[in-house]
Write a structure and sequence with these properties.
The chain is of the alpha/beta class. The chain has 12 helices and 12 strands. The protein has a 7-stranded parallel sheet, with helices on both faces. The longest helix is centred in the last third of the chain and has 19 residues. The two termini are 17 Å apart.
Length: 333
């Protein structure tokens, strides 16, 4: 029986920049595990021409990649794309589905660090931790701006009650006695009950929440899900946190809302353009906490994610149904 071919560019150490990867020893170990069940190519293509050559005849791609119609034309034998993370907005999933190519992510492992980061932002915003630190370093001890916002018993609105949103909701309820409202058109009330959440419309969530956390994947339906209209529904005292994808929010509308004090503040880990351009007005705003797309970045989660992704590929190569299939209609097993 012919062995499948795997392009494991995601397991090639990246040395010239900061990268969300396990250490080189773990990457080597995972390469060897794959080689036990498949023919593995561990080169990292440098450009379109190299990619077109590398994917020809390949059955499985192991690692994140930009996938469009042109890419798929070259990938003539492709059966599976295994992303090493949650997001898959760089992949044309409908085009893959038409060709019977399954797309998998690793959906659950990053949920805990993302939830922790979301709450770090919420606590920073409501207790002015970063602002006070900067002011003290500049010589300021007291300020009328240091008055905080007590979150105990307040209302937390969770947009998207998947793995990330569920953990964020649980922490809000258990740690801070919060009332939880959730908006997710794909969730049944029984799931919401597991997190102590009440399913409501997006409009009601925005109108009643003191803190809103956005936790949805980026797709055509969620692009600019939160725009000028939605921001205008929020309380002027409310905070907004986004650790999902930047384009889920209309960034220009958010900037204007923050300028006009339409809401009290925002915590953003993701942006419509990344890296965030040096001239972005967000960088000058005191009522914003910014981090550079690091919500999922912990050593433990990164290693576990890579191990989970490789185990999923091996599962598929052994003829078993893989986990975390984004487009199950494409699976032919």
């Amino acid at each position: 029986m012919l062995r499948k071919k795997v392009l494991a560019h995601g397991l090639v150490p990246v040395l010239d920049r900061w990268a969300e990867q396990p250490n080189a020893a773990v990457l080597k170990e995972l390469q060897e595990e794959l080689k036990m069940v498949a023919d593995v190519d561990v080169r990292r293509p440098a450009g379109p021409k190299e990619w077109a050559e590398a994917v020809r005849g390949v059955d499985v791609i192991a690692g994140g990649v930009m996938v469009d119609e042109g890419f798929l034309e070259a990938a003539d034998e492709l059966e599976m794309i295994q992303n090493f993370g949650i997001g898959y907005d760089r992949i044309d999933v409908p085009a893959c589905t038409r060709r019977g190519i399954i797309v998998c992510n690793v959906a659950e492992i990053y949920s805990e660090p993302v939830a922790q980061h979301t709450w770090a932002m919420i606590l920073d915003l409501t207790k002015h931790v970063t602002r006070a630190d900067r002011a003290m370093r500049a010589g300021t001890w007291q300020s009328e701006d240091w008055m905080g916002f007590q979150i105990w018993g307040k209302t937390l609105g969770v947009i998207g009650l998947g793995n990330n949103g569920g953990r964020i909701a649980l922490k809000g309820r258990a740690a801070f006695g919060m009332r939880i409202l959730a908006y997710d058109p794909f969730v049944l009330p029984a799931r919401a009950q597991l997190f102590g959440a009440e399913l409501v419309s997006l409009e009601r969530l925005l109108e009643e929440s003191d803190i809103v956390s956005v936790n949805v994947p980026l797709n055509p339906q969620t692009r600019h899900l939160i725009g000028e209209k939605e921001l205008s529904m929020m309380k002027k005292t409310a905070f907004l946190v986004n650790t999902s994808r930047g384009a889920v929010m209309d960034e220009a509308a958010l900037v204007e809302c923050l300028r006009e004090r339409g809401i009290r503040g925002a915590g953003l880990d993701v942006f419509e353009t990344e890296p965030l351009p040096p001239g972005s007005p967000l960088l000058e705003m005191e009522n914003v906490v910014l981090t550079p797309h690091i919500a999922s970045s912990t050593e433990e989660a990164i290693e576990e994610t890579y191990r989970g992704a490789v185990a999923n590929i091996i599962r598929y190569l052994k003829g078993l149904r893989p986990h975390w299939i984004i487009n199950p209609h494409a699976y032919q097993g």
